[in-house]
Design brief:
Blueprint: H1 15-19, H2 26-33, H3 39-60, H4 62-65, E1 71-73, E2 94-96, H5 105-108, H6 116-119, H7 121-137, H8 147-165, H9 171-184, H10 188-197, H11 205-208, H12 210-229, H13 235-256, H14 261-266, H15 270-280, H16 285-292, H17 298-303, H18 312-315, H19 317-343, H20 351-362, H21 365-375, H22 378-395, H23 398-422, H24 425-444, H25 446-452, H26 457-472, H27 490-505
């Protein structure tokens, strides 16, 4: 396919093309029916993408709920806020600002003088839940529940658990619930990305996949506003204000979200898949009704559906090589993406303003990424981006540090689309989960790297840059996917790759 903007089924407009069963495939039906990006496609993408908005709020909510609260002196003869250690003062000599100890988890549970290990335990449990949940949920076969149900169940479990956090009576219950929140939503991002990418055509995929990423950042920004408005209230209200809307969102998701037509096709439900395509593109209803009879009967198709799982990545050499390379690259991007803000965390600014600005920095990347994907091929875009980001980290100037973070975010966006195109529908969800896990594991290494450069920050930024550019070189091993439509089965992917390689040799 030389021109990705050209409808794949333009040659099926005549009667001979439609009647030719050997030429008609479900992939071509999807590409033809979704060739135009209409209102209902945008609605469906935005509806599923909102899951990432609520996801972002729960990820960053501890920035406000677990913050060390401010205090003031009551007895100035023995107390000096600028010089006194709160733990060496009698409790009657000082008081929390606002007169309430419920503004923060630290003040309510009396952790102000506890060891840093105990104070940081909820955050640690939160990220451990991400790693454990990511590996556990990756074992669920792609053909088990469906894309829509996985997004729905993960978001609903996260929301219900967030409401339960409100009733925590001690740090141990709070820590357990934080673990379960992250465990249940560890793959919400992956589920949403796969569902969205399988409901758009090749032409519109670069732009469509940026919509949920944008909503994720907007969730981060909205949390800052909610936290600012609720700063005089108990920390429990922040969980209430973010989890209750998420519950109502789950109801709308259940009622109005559509399943992936590609996943339905893989399950042998071609009629239901055509119904989904008809709802997303009503103007192509006549075309879809004309081709549905050309597809195999559901019973016949269902009997031929093979079963795939994560083990297929290890039994097929090409799949194992691809997922391994993708995880290596994402590990390097994770180190830079999470590490650069962590290493620069000592800047003394207002917490609400700081978190909002961090989110604003990411918004331009969602405009730049589609431009790169549409004008350049995947491999060169990732390679040049990681080399530029790595060089910026080594230079270690203020603007170059920002450039490293910028390139890390763009690299993440590029790899997300690239990865979706490299794996077939039958294992795409599992591949996306492993992609996400590599990013999280890279982020988990950041505190150690940041501590190495605590007194010489340039060391940390140099490590971030070298990891990003060095591991980014592995992209040269991956196949180019620009302009190629999605495959559904492992066998189809192998045939397509073989055909592409043969054409390159010729």
């Amino acid at each position: 396919m030389d021109d990705p903007s050209e409808p794949l089924l333009s040659h099926f407009a005549n009667d001979s093309g439609v009647n030719d069963k050997t030429a008609l495939t479900f992939d071509k039906i999807v590409e033809q029916s979704l060739s135009d990006f209409g209102f209902w496609q945008f609605f469906q993408i935005s509806l599923v993408g909102l899951a990432l908005l609520f996801d972002a709020q729960q990820i960053f909510i501890t920035v406000y709920t677990d913050a060390y609260p401010t205090w003031h002196c009551l007895n100035h003869t023995i107390c000096d806020p600028s010089a006194s250690d709160i733990c060496n003062l009698p409790r009657s000599a000082w008081e929390w600002d606002g007169g309430s100890k419920g503004k923060s988890v630290i003040s309510e549970f009396g952790l102000e003088c506890s060891r840093s290990l105990l104070r940081g335990m909820p955050s640690s449990a939160f990220y451990i839940g991400a790693i454990v949940g990511g590996f556990f949920l990756a074992l669920i076969p792609d053909d088990s529940l469906g894309r829509k149900k996985l997004v729905l169940f993960s978001t609903f479990a996260m929301s219900i658990t967030s409401i339960c956090v409100i009733f925590s009576t001690n740090i141990w219950i709070y820590t357990f619930l934080k673990f379960f929140i992250r465990f249940s939503r560890s793959q919400t991002w992956s589920y949403a990305l796969v569902l969205i990418s399988e409901r758009v055509s090749t032409r519109w995929r670069p732009r469509a996949t940026m919509i949920p990423f944008t909503l994720f950042v907007l969730g981060f920004m909205s949390l800052s506003g909610i936290a600012y408005l609720a700063q005089d209230s108990s920390w429990r209200y922040l969980y209430l204000y973010t989890s209750v809307p998420a519950i109502f969102y789950c109801i709308f998701l259940y009622l109005f979200a559509l399943e992936s037509p590609r996943w339905l096709h893989m399950q042998g439900n071609d009629k239901e898949a055509i119904d989904v395509l008809t709802k997303m593109s009503p103007k192509n209803k006549a075309y879809l009704e004309s081709v549905v009879s050309k597809l195999p009967h559901e019973q016949e198709n269902f009997e031929q559906v093979p079963t795939y799982s994560i083990k297929d990545f290890f039994f097929r050499k090409w799949a194992f090589q691809r997922i391994l390379v993708v995880m290596i690259i994402m590990f390097g991007l994770g180190i830079s993406y999470y590490g650069v803000p962590l290493a620069a965390r000592d800047i003394d600014v207002n917490i609400y303003l700081s978190e909002t600005l961090n989110a604003l920095v990411e918004l331009p990347t969602f405009v730049i990424t589609p431009i790169l994907l549409e004008r350049f091929n995947r491999r060169s875009s990732v390679l040049v981006n990681t080399l530029l980001g790595g060089a910026s980290g080594v230079l270690c100037f203020v603007l170059s540090i920002l450039g490293t973070f910028f390139c890390a975010r763009i690299g993440f966006n590029l790899m997300a689309v690239f990865m979706v195109e490299m794996f077939p529908t039958c294992v795409r969800s599992s591949a996306t989960m492993m992609f996400r896990q590599a990013l999280v594991v890279g982020g988990a290494c950041c505190p150690l790297i940041s501590s190495i450069g605590r007194y010489i920050p340039s060391v940390s930024f140099a490590i971030f840059g070298i990891a990003m550019s060095g591991l980014g070189l592995f992209v040269l091993i991956l196949p180019e996917t620009k302009g190629l439509s999605l495959c559904d089965s492992m066998e189809e992917q192998e045939k397509r790759d073989q055909a592409v390689n043969t054409s390159h040799v010729c």
